[in-house]
TrEMBL record:
GO terms for MF: NADPH binding; oxidoreductase activity, acting on NAD(P)H
Record-annotated Enoyl reductase (ER) domain positions: 24-332
Keywords in alphabetical order: NADP, Oxidoreductase
Name of the protein described by the UniProt record: Enoyl reductase (ER) domain-containing protein
Pfam short name (any one): ADH_N
Organism from which the protein derives: Actinomyces glycerinitolerans
SMART domains: PKS_ER
Keyword Amino-acid biosynthesis carried by entry: no
C-alpha cells in the first residue's frame, strides 16, 4: 500500500493515543483524547506512521529527563499536514517531524494526530508505503548526522559500526555503503552476523575485543567508528581507530550512561578523536530526506527491515523493543 494522501479532510473531535501516566510499562495506555489544537507557530499533522525508538524505552522506564505526565510518547511521526493556521503548509502535504521535545516536553507521535512547531516539520513527496516512510525520519537524522557532523566520513573511507544490527546501525551502514565506504559492523549473534553479511557489510562477532579483529583486516585501524553500544565497548572501539581517525559516541544500547574514573590519556589512543552526536529535525536537510526516500523507492538503497504494529498494540511493541525481539525498525500504524 503506497503512501496515499488521506482523502477524508474532516478532522474528528477525538483520537486514539498512547499515553504514559507515570514511569513503568504498566502505566502506558492507549486512550481516547481530544484532537490537539495548534498554537501560534505550530501545525497539526495527521499521523500515518511513527517509529519506535530506544529514547521512548528510556521514557517508559523512567531513565529520560525532561518528562512530565501524563504524556503521549513518541519522538517522531510521519504523515500529512492536517492544519496550519497560518496557511504556510497546505493540507495534505506529506511531512515528517522529530525531536524538539516531542514525547517528553509536549505530546508526541504515538497518536492519530500531533501538533508540533512548524520549524521541525520537513516536507517530502513519496509513493512508498507509510510503514516504510515511518521507519526513516529519526533513524536517518541520527545516521546522517553521525556520518557528517560526528565523523566527517568521506567516500571510500572505512567505518566500524559497533552495535551493527540495531536499526541505527543498519541504517548507518547502508548510507556508508552507498557512499562507497568499506563497512565493518558487529553483532553478538549468528543471525545478526548473517544479516550484516547479506547487506554487504564485513560482519564481526562482538566478543569484547573487536579492535583486534578490525586490525586483522585493516592493520592501521579504520578511519571512523560509530559507537552505538555505549560505555562498555567504547574503550575497545577507540583502539580500532587509526591515527587521526574519529570515534563518534551516538548510542547507548547498553543503557550505561557514564564512565567511572574516566582517564582520557589512558582511554584515548594517540591521535584518535572522540566526539558525539545528538541532533534535531533542523539537522536533517530536506534534500537528504528526499534523496534517501527516492533511493529506497527505486530499490537502490536497502535501508531497514520494518516490523509494524497497530497503535492498539504499542505496549507489546515496547516490550518487543526492550527484548530485542526483531531486527530493524519497529513502526506503529495509528489507523491500522
Amino acid at each position: 500500500m503506497t503512501a496515499a494522501i488521506p482523502s477524508d479532510t474532516t478532522t474528528p473531535a477525538s483520537m486514539r493515543a498512547a499515553v504514559l501516566t507515570a514511569p513503568g510499562i504498566e502505566n502506558l495506555h492507549v486512550l481516547d483524547m481530544p484532537v490537539p489544537q495548534p498554537r501560534p507557530g505550530w501545525v497539526r499533522l495527521k499521523v500515518m506512521a511513527f517509529g519506535l525508538n530506544r529514547s521512548e524505552y528510556h521514557s517508559v522506564t523512567g531513565q529520560a529527563g525532561g518528562m512530565s505526565y501524563p504524556r503521549v510518547l513518541g519522538i517522531e511521526a510521519s504523515g500529512v499536514v492536517d492544519l496550519d493556521p497560518e496557511g504556510r503548509l497546505a493540507p495534505g502535504t506529506q511531512a515528517v517531524t522529530m525531536m524538539g521535545g516531542m514525547g517528553r516536553a509536549f505530546d508526541g507521535g504515538y497518536a492519530q494526530y500531533v501538533v508540533v512547531p512548524r520549524e521541525q516539520v520537513i516536507t517530502f513527496h513519496s509513493g512508498l508505503p507509510w510503514e516504510v516512510i515511518g521507519s526513516v525520519p529519526e533513524t536517518l537524522q541520527t545516521a546522517y548526522g553521525s556520518l557528517t557532523t560526528g565523523l566527517n566520513l568521506q567516500p571510500g573511507q572505512s567505518l566500524l559500526v559497533r552495535g551493527g544490527t540495531s536499526a541505527l546501525g543498519l541504517a548507518t551502514a547502508a548510507l556508508a555503503l552507498d557512499m562507497g565506504c568499506t563497512v565493518y559492523a558487529t553483532s553478538r549473534r549468528d543471525a545478526g552476523l548473517e544479516l550484516l553479511s547479506s547487506r554487504g557489510v564485513m560482519a564481526l562477532r562482538d566478543d569484547g575485543a573487536v579492535a583486534q579483529q578490525v586490525r586483522r583486516h585493516a592493520p592501521a585501524g579504520v578511519d571512523a567508528v560509530l559507537e552505538l553500544v555505549g560505555v562498555p565497548t567504547l574503550r575497545d572501539s577507540l583502539q580500532a581507530a587509526a591515527v587521526h581517525g574519529t570515534v563518534c559516541f551516538t548510542g547507548m544500547l547498553s543503557d550505561s550512561w557514564t564512565i567511572k574514573d574516566f582517564y582520557p590519556l589512558d582511554w584515548i589512543p594517540n591521535g584518535v578523536r572522540l566526539t558525539t552526536y545528538s541532533g534535531q529535525a533542523s539537522d536533517l536537510p530536506e534534500a537528504e530526506l528526499q534523496r534517501v526516500l527516492d533511493r529506497i523507492e527505486t530499490g537502490a538503497l536497502d535501508f531497514l527491515p520494518v516490523h509494524t504494529y497497530p497503535l492498539e498494540d504499542v505496549v507489546q511493541a515496547q516490550r518487543d523493543m526492550a527484548a530485542g525481539a526483531h531486527t530493524g525498525k519497529l513502526v506503529g500504524l495509528p489507523w491500522a
